[in-house]
Design brief:
alpha/beta; 18% strand
């Protein structure tokens, strides 16, 4: 059997000490029958994530500068050091489910026009509004069948990634999987989500407000604006508008409300608030909770502010590799 890895498993991490060992173990079990390599791409964790990963005997690569941290840089960093014909993308708080690899490889080998495949996602009970809402919308976030992008990662064909230049945009603090899906579709490839388990996910234990503050500080909320900025002047800009539609509409709405406030016309300002009141009412009825309705507004408002911030943020060239170091190295496994 060849020493070259058939599958590269990429695990992106930032302070994932509580889950990284379990993630590595689950991947190693599922890839035991294939030549493979496991690469942990770490964004300069401040806990002992890298030490735990090194002790597991995998390749660990790390950013050199904390300002390069973002959601999009991790898998791109792994890709730069990878050799596998297929690329399995995971996060350090995920557990790979039994049987996914076999089903995914069978699909990819039978369908060469598909660049990537994923499966069903299982989530635990979230402790904050974001993850509770995500679990309620899990079938919309992770739809089965052909789809425009694979949220949560998947198994990708290396040859398809090579044709589009890079895996994930190293400057995006969110929506990097959507950006990848858009570029693959533009290149003529398709993506699919199988009706088989892919991974289980451990939710963050932060409170709703704490998580919003963390996402603002980490610039995750800037993702929609950065996605739009990254596509400006490119053939797929309209596709990014579709992906960020909700955030863009809410941003425009808040700008309208602000304009009515500055106008000094109390009647117009009051009228401009009616859609917001109606929105809260609908969300309250749907979730049977005024608290949930108010949190929906708070969440969208935070993304609106982030969208503006992202639009104003210069992005690095995604084709230029970030400065990084190899912390430990794993030889290809039989």
């Amino acid at each position: 059997m060849s020493n070259s890895p058939f599958i590269t498993a990429s695990i992106k991490t930032f302070n994932e000490s509580q889950g990284i060992e379990k993630t590595i173990d689950s991947i190693r079990r599922q890839l035991a029958a294939y030549p493979h390599e496991i690469i942990v791409a770490d964004s300069l964790s401040t806990d002992n994530t890298r030490e735990l990963a090194c002790a597991k005997g995998v390749t660990v690569v790390s950013l050199r500068h904390p300002e390069d941290r973002c959601c999009g840089v991790g898998h791109q960093l792994s890709y730069l050091h990878s050799q596998g014909e297929f690329l399995l993308l995971m996060d350090g708080d995920m557990t790979l489910e039994d049987g996914f690899i076999e089903s995914a490889l069978a699909f990819m080998q039978a369908n060469p026009d598909y660049a990537g495949v994923a499966g069903r996602v299982a989530m635990d009970e979230g402790s904050n509004y974001e993850f509770k809402s995500r679990k309620q919308r899990i079938n919309k976030i992770y739809p089965l069948g052909d789809c425009d992008h694979l949220g949560g990662g998947g198994l990708y064909r290396r040859s398809a990634i090579e044709k589009i230049g890079y895996l994930t945009h190293r400057g995006l603090h969110g929506y990097e999987e959507a950006e990848l899906g858009i570029r693959l579709h533009q290149a003529g490839y398709k993506l699919h989500r199988l009706d088989v388990p892919y991974f289980s996910h451990t939710s963050h234990v932060m409170s709703t407000l704490t998580m919003l503050r963390y996402r603002w500080k980490s610039r995750f909320l800037s993702g929609p604006g950065e996605l739009l900025r990254s596509a400006w002047g490119k053939p797929w800009f309209r596709d990014t508008l579709k992906i960020t539609r909700n955030e863009a509409i809410f941003t425009l709405y808040w700008l309208l409300v602000f304009a009515m406030l500055l106008s000094g016309n109390g009647t117009l300002f009051g009228l401009s608030l009616l859609p917001l009141i109606l929105f809260i009412g609908l969300k309250t009825v749907k979730n049977r909770s005024l608290f949930a309705g108010l949190h929906s507004v708070l969440n969208l408002t935070a993304f609106s502010a982030g969208l503006i911030r992202g639009l104003l943020t210069p992005l690095p060239d995604p084709m230029q590799p970030p400065e990084n170091d190899i912390v430990s190295h794993q030889d290809a496994k039989q």
